[in-house]
Amino acid sequence: YRIDRDYEISPLDDAPPLRFMTAHNNRLFGAGDLLYPLRLYFCGDRDPNKWFSPDTDADGEETYDEVLSAGYFEIDGISGDEIKAVWGEYLDSVIVCTNRQTFRITGTNINDWYVERISASVGALGPHCIAQAGNDLWIVSDQGVFSLKGVVEHGDMATAMVSFDIQEVFTDVGDLRKEILPNLSEKVRLKFD
Question: Which of 12, 84, 113, 131 is the most buried (most CB within 10 A)?
């Protein structure tokens, strides 16, 4: 939904079937399309109701402007992956977590965006499993809680485990881990306070 200057609420009737979104550089980025689990959509610049989704366009047609100013990325995931969480406005990047990997999108506009894999082994459990703590992002994965740190001098990012004191919650459950964690993925919420 969007709220205009007169506080009128209206649905985003051109948006693809998204389950979660984030804002970054005057655009919305969203994922959770069940038909395209590794697709990250973005809306038009300063227009939350301008989307390009050729297979699932809600209003039934794509305009020339939608094709030029909105679109999507196909994230290079592993078979069985799906985008689980997105976070915007983090060190000039959009952070995208699949269930097993973490990526970042950098650039200033649609013509120079670049997708980079940050971690090939750390992903997120669900859409609420990322929280910003100072200059770090904390991510709850099926392996534990990790901190994504930006090394500003070099422009790099790296993950580090921060859940040492509670690691048995993630590793000592044995075979139940594979049964319990997938059922919790939409319920787990990470909050930094």
Answer: 84
